[in-house]
Amino acid sequence: EQTEETLVIVKPDGVARNLTGEILRRIEAKGYQLVDIRMLQADRELLAAHYAEHEGKPFYEPLVEFMQSGPVVAIRVTGNRVIEGFRSLAGTTDPTSAAPGTIRGDLGRDWGLPVQQNLVHGSDAPESAARELALWFA
Ligand code: DAT
Ligand code: MG
């Protein structure tokens, strides 16, 4: 067994579309534990720290703007290999190509929305999970 923690964020599009419950349901159905949860309006400072690795990329500004556009739900999730497991549940970054059965593949509407509106964030490695959880659950 390899118990890990990860940070999941339901992005503003997920909250606005009332998909928070559906996303939590999928996480719980997979057998992961929700250990902390908070709804908040993220400010620029938090998002700049969270997305520091993407600073300077063409999608950085639209991403940070979008993430400030409404409330988000941050969740601390634990489970066996949950970092990889949640990213598998989420599907690939672009909802257009995300596999059916995944959160982004099933629920990510595609009518020309920008890629940043892909419903969820999930940490991608133990180091980023620790760093991000410290930011969102300070
Ligand atoms: P992920 O969220 O799958 O880990 P990422 O860390 O590479 O993806 O990027 C963070 C977010 O930035 C992603 O959820 C959506 C947005 N993004 C990434 N690549 C993009 C691109 N090529 N165009 C527009 N938005 C992008
Ligand atoms: Mg990422």
TrEMBL record:
<feature type="binding site">
    <location>
        <position position="87"/>
    </location>
    <ligand>
        <name>ATP</name>
    </ligand>
</feature>
<feature type="binding site">
    <location>
        <position position="118"/>
    </location>
    <ligand>
        <name>ATP</name>
    </ligand>
</feature>
<dbReference type="Pfam" id="PF00334">
    <property type="entry name" value="NDK"/>
</dbReference>
<feature type="binding site">
    <location>
        <position position="104"/>
    </location>
    <ligand>
        <name>ATP</name>
    </ligand>
</feature>
<keyword id="KW-0808">Transferase</keyword>
<feature type="domain" description="Nucleoside diphosphate kinase-like">
    <location>
        <begin position="3"/>
        <end position="138"/>
    </location>
</feature>
<keyword id="KW-0547">Nucleotide-binding</keyword>
<dbReference type="InterPro" id="IPR036850">
    <property type="entry name" value="NDK-like_dom_sf"/>
</dbReference>
<comment type="similarity">
    <text>Belongs to the NDK family.</text>
</comment>
<keyword id="KW-0418">Kinase</keyword>
<keyword id="KW-0546">Nucleotide metabolism</keyword>
<dbReference type="InterPro" id="IPR023005">
    <property type="entry name" value="Nucleoside_diP_kinase_AS"/>
</dbReference>
<feature type="binding site">
    <location>
        <position position="93"/>
    </location>
    <ligand>
        <name>ATP</name>
    </ligand>
</feature>
<dbReference type="InterPro" id="IPR001564">
    <property type="entry name" value="Nucleoside_diP_kinase"/>
</dbReference>
<feature type="binding site">
    <location>
        <position position="59"/>
    </location>
    <ligand>
        <name>ATP</name>
    </ligand>
</feature>
<protein>
    <recommendedName>
        <fullName>Nucleoside diphosphate kinase</fullName>
        <ecNumber>2.7.4.6</ecNumber>
    </recommendedName>
</protein>
<feature type="binding site">
    <location>
        <position position="11"/>
    </location>
    <ligand>
        <name>ATP</name>
    </ligand>
</feature>
<dbReference type="InterPro" id="IPR034907">
    <property type="entry name" value="NDK-like_dom"/>
</dbReference>
<keyword id="KW-0067">ATP-binding</keyword>
<feature type="active site" description="Pros-phosphohistidine intermediate">
    <location>
        <position position="121"/>
    </location>
</feature>
<dbReference type="GO" id="GO:0004550">
    <property type="term" value="F:nucleoside diphosphate kinase activity"/>
</dbReference>
